[in-house]
Amino acid sequence: MDIGMLSLLGKTISLMENLGFLWLVHTGYELNLWEGFLKERNKEDFLAENPDWDPLLLDHWLEQARIQELVVLTKGKYKLSKTGKAIHGYRNYGLEAMYKEFALYWGASFAQLPELIRRQIPRLKMDNEMENELISRASKSSEFFVWPVLRGKCEKEDWHHVLDVGCGEAVLLRRLVEEFPNLHGVGLEVNQSVANRAAMETEPFQGRIRIEATNVFDFKDALEIYDCCLLNNLIYYFTGQQRLDLLKTVTDLLKPGGKIGILTALRGVSPAFQIFKTHIPQNLMSFFLSCHDGFEGLPLEKEVLNLLEQAGFTEVEVIPLPFKVSHYFFARKPLA
Ligand SMILES: C[S@@+](CC[C@H](N)C(=O)[O-])C[C@H]1O[C@@H](n2cnc3c(N)ncnc32)[C@H](O)[C@@H]1O
């Protein structure tokens, strides 16, 4: 067999395996199978509780889950493996939303790529469920990587007033006020349903966290009062000139010497030692976003650096997060 054919075969087999994983994880969440098999159970018990379910399809789900080592079968009883337990454990940390995005929306959008490239159809409209729910929820999955960096910065710079633009469900604002008793935060969120969830999540911190359901460009506040403005996973919502306008808006709100923090996945990340080839999914995310009206995809590192320079920021620092899943750019507004 020639080498090209062999490599094609390898890619096709791994595609089938990965597609299988996607459908298993997504269906497992939808049907609560991950929770169901936390304790050892046999298939018959499960079917007795769900008499309307199709036994043949459940059998296939279990067979696939076993082949992919997500459940273990011992003496006729199934139980989650370590990976299966992780799938269950990280459900509410963005994983369920991320897999729902892949299963329901990525495939459907990419299927229209030939027509999109030929411009036979206009760029797609981002689905409401994506805008209202999934994007902000899936973003939570970066918390594990982002939080240690943010906490370190906050400690070092002694921030007291933080503005989180496009705060999503305000997970990081909440962590900041929990960790730093003198810190006050304001979260801006343009999507009303996401803002409502953020307000609910931060209710115990009323008085220290304020959520405003507003577009950042309509936000009115005293100038130069924030020590730090965060733009986490936000920049890709804005196109060329808007990105610069956004940074200028933020500059006006920052104290002289205050910091901007831009968290974003990047296109064109140079390969380095990686356990996972994370540049592949990131570029795919950029590709997916670009299929949609109003989205320009993820920026290149040099685009973010140019943007910061054009907006007048100094002391730019680029921090790659583990596995290069994202990069955090911090920069300072000059003192005078
Ligand atoms: C991908 S989420 C990121 C949420 C959070 N920052 C995080 O990193 O987990 C981006 C959020 O920004 C919000 N957003 C987009 N454009 C905005 C704008 N012009 N003003 C305020 N919020 C905006 C979106 O509704 C979305 O919830």
Automatic annotation (TrEMBL):
Gene3D superfamilies: Vaccinia Virus protein VP39
UniProt xrefs under InterPro entries: Methyltransf_12 (IPR013217), SAM-dependent_MTases_sf (IPR029063)
GO annotation, biological process: methylation
Record keywords, A-Z: Methyltransferase, Transferase
Signal peptide extent: none
Domain spans labelled Methyltransferase type: 163-260
GO MF annotations in UniProt: methyltransferase activity
Pfam hit, one: Methyltransf_12
Entry protein name: Methyltransferase family protein
Organism: Desulfosporosinus meridiei (strain ATCC BAA-275 / DSM 13257 / KCTC 12902 / NCIMB 13706 / S10)
Native organism taxonomy: Bacteria, Bacillati, Bacillota, Clostridia, Eubacteriales
